[in-house]
Amino acid sequence: MKIYTLALAGLLALIACQKNQPIRLAGNTMGTTYHITIADENNIPLPISDIQFAVDSILLEVNRKMSTFIKDSEISRFNRWQKTDPFIVSKEFVSVLGTALQIYRESNGAFDVTVAPLVNLWGFGNAGSRQITPPLEHINQARKHIGSDKLLILNDSTIVKEDSLLKLDLSAIAKGYGVDVVSRMLDNHGLHDYLVEIGGEVVAKGLKYGQKWRIGIDHPDYNAVPGKNLEAVLLLSNAAVATSGDYRNYFMVGDTVYTHAIDPANGKPVINGVASVTVIAPQCTLADAMATAIMVMGAEKGLQMVENKPDMECLIILRTKSEYRTLKSTGFGKYLD
Length: 337
What we know:
Among the domains are: 69-161, Orthogonal Bundle (T-fold), CATH 1.10.3980; 212-337, Roll (T-fold). The chain has helices at 2-18, 48-66, 74-80, 91-106, 116-121, 136-143, 174-188, 284-297, 299-307, and strands at 23-29, 32-38, 87-88, 151-155, 158-161, 194-198, 201-205, 213-218, 230-236, 239-245, 250-253, 256-259, 262-263, 268-269, 274-281, 313-319, 324-328. The protein starts with a helix and ends in a 9-residue tail after the last strand. It has an eight-stranded antiparallel sheet with strand order 1-2-6-7-10-15-16-17. Strands 3-5-4 form a three-stranded antiparallel sheet, with helices on one face. Strands 8-9 form a two-stranded antiparallel sheet. By secondary structure, the chain is α+β, with helices and mostly antiparallel strands. It has nine helices and 17 strands.
C-alpha cells in the first residue's frame, strides 16, 4: 500500500505540473496553519508525500526548540533554568536569538524576546488567557526580570541569562523562522517556484506560471474573516513578507483594546494607534521580528528604521476612532498590484 501511495503521489505531481495546476500542501503548526503552493513547471523531484513529510518534520523540530507550549522544548527548559550558568541549546536556537538580539538593539529595546512574564501576565502566553488587566504591582514585578541585554550568546550552542528569572518568548519570530527553514528545504530539493505561508508569514520564490505571486494584506478590522476585506495586494518574487496587527489576538475591557503586542518599556499592551504593520524583507525571520518591533515603536520611529534599511519596505496602517490612515516606506509602492 505504501509503494502504491507514493507512486500515485508522484503521478499526481507530474499531472498537476503538466496542466499548470499548482501542488498545494497544508497542515497545522505553532497554534496556526501552514500552506505551501508549488508551481514549478519542471517535474517535481520527489513525491508529494515526501515533501509533506519533510515539511511536517521540519516544523515539528522548530516547535521542539521554540514553543513554550511544549514542556520539554529547548525554550521551556531554558525558562525553567533558574541559574546563570551556561546553557546548551541548538545552533538553530542561537541563530534565531541572534536575529532577535539584533532587532532588540536596532529598535532600542522595542523588540524584546524576554517579555515572556508579561505575555503570560496579560493572558497571551502558555499560562492561559484572561480577560482582565493585571494589577500594576504585578506588572512592575515582572518588568524587573525583562531585558534582552541580560541575555548573552557565548557561541553557536551556548547561551547565558544574567538574571536567573529571565524567560523567553519567541512567538514574534518563530513563525517567520519556520517559513525560512521550509523554504531552504524546498530550495535544496531543486524547487524554484513556490510560496510558503505559516500564520500569515510568507516567503514567495520564483514565479507562479510566469507571474509574480499575489499576496493579500488584510484590512485590520476586528474579528474579520482573513482574506475577506483586503487593504492591498502585493506582487512578490524572491522575497518574504510578514504582518503584525492588533486585530486578531486581543481582549477588551470596556472600550479599551488590549493586544498581544507588549511594550517592554511600560509592561503593557501597546496603544499607539498602529493597527497593522506589514514588512517586506529578504528573510521571513527578519520580516516577522521587524513587524512586531514597529508595532511597539510606533509609526514614526518604525518608518524611519525601515527607511534606513535598503533591502526592506513596510506598510503601516493607523487606526483612529473615525478612520484608518496608511503610511508606506519609499519603495513599498513597487510591490503593489
